[in-house]
TrEMBL record:
InterPro entries: AIM24, AIM24_sf, Trp_RNA-bd_attenuator-like_dom. This is TIGR00266 family protein. It comes from Thalassoglobus polymorphus. Pfam families: AIM24 (PF01987). Gene3D superfamilies: Mitochondrial biogenesis AIM24. It comes from the Bacteria.
Length: 219
């Protein structure tokens, strides 16, 4: 199997070239186009219990599409929001994704919902994250372009801009300094990461777009 990207960073999509015997898993509804003769099955990733948890707590689909082709073929996937598609190679390690950012993976990758604690309720990312672990290729998407940062120490990010991060990083939720600064800066709460690892940030947020559109939707 090999793959390439089209449309990054604005309207990214993933194209996968399958060899005979290859299988590939993708979020339900993400398929854009594919070669004739492609075989498609539905699969509960992680079993029924984990699939139900992902649906209820993370907004992810219960099912994933499992794709294969007897003689080799091509299939393309597009996320539901405009932005970048990112590849992460897992080698018996793991990464945490925010809800809605998972796009696709190879069969060696496992998905599991992880409770982020009460602090996650105020992060703007939801109380649960998707823990992706194992060995294989993982693909996820952002709203807007992706910015990758290597953190060694501390780093502050506005809530809503975080897409994924290494589990070696810890975070806390806080304001922009004093209560006055937090209220008047217009930034609200921020996520303060500490430790050593990589973080993936998105340049736009859906909540920001919704807030910008809201005045135009009032009748």
């Amino acid at each position: 199997m090999n793959f390439d990207f089209e449309g990054n960073p604005d309207y990214g999509s993933l194209t996968v070239h399958l060899q005979p015997g290859d299988t590939f898993l993708a979020e339900a509804g993400a398929m854009a186009y594919m070669s004739s003769g492609m075989e498609v099955k539905t699969k509960l990733m992680g079993g029924i219990a984990q699939a139900l948890i992902r649906k209820v707590t993370g907004g992810e689909s219960l099912f994933a599409g499992e794709y294969s082709h007897p003689s080799g073929g091509t299939i393309s996937f597009s996320p539901s929001v405009p932005g970048s598609v990112v590849h992460r190679k897992l080698d018996s390690d793991s990464i945490l994704l925010t809800s809605g950012s998972f796009l696709a993976c190879t069969p060696g990758v496992n998905l599991k919902m992880k409770f982020g604690g009460l602090k996650a309720l105020f992060s703007g990312e939801g109380a649960f994250q998707i823990e992706c672990s194992g060995t294989g290729d993982l693909f996820f998407n952002s709203y807007g372009a992706i910015v990758e940062k290597e953190i060694n120490g501390s780093y502050t990010v506005d809530t809503g801009h975080v897409v994924a991060w290494d589990p070696s990083l810890e975070y806390s939720i806080g304001g922009m300094g004093s209560m006055k600064s937090t209220l008047l800066s217009g930034e609200g709460l921020v996520m303060k990461f500490t430790g050593h690892g990589k973080i993936y940030l998105q340049t736009r947020t859906l909540s920001g777009l919704a807030g910008w559109l809201n005045p135009y939707l009032r009748g």
